[in-house]
Design goal:
Pfam families: SR1P (PF13790). With 45 residues, this protein is mostly beta strands. It has one domain. It contains one helix and three strands, in the order E-E-E-H. Strand 1 and strand 2 form a beta hairpin. It binds zinc ion.
Amino acid sequence: MGLIVCGHCGRHIDEVETEKVTVLYGCCTNDSCRRGTRQGETENE
Ligand SMILES: [Zn+2]
């Protein structure tokens, strides 16, 4: 199980199935977060 959380506000965004427990950082839909540093590595797949 992997958790995707916003790298800006820490908000839980989504979950993905992974072999190990991991935390991935993405960006939530908050305007203030979307205007922040782009971290597109964990966008919705
Ligand atoms: Zn956020």
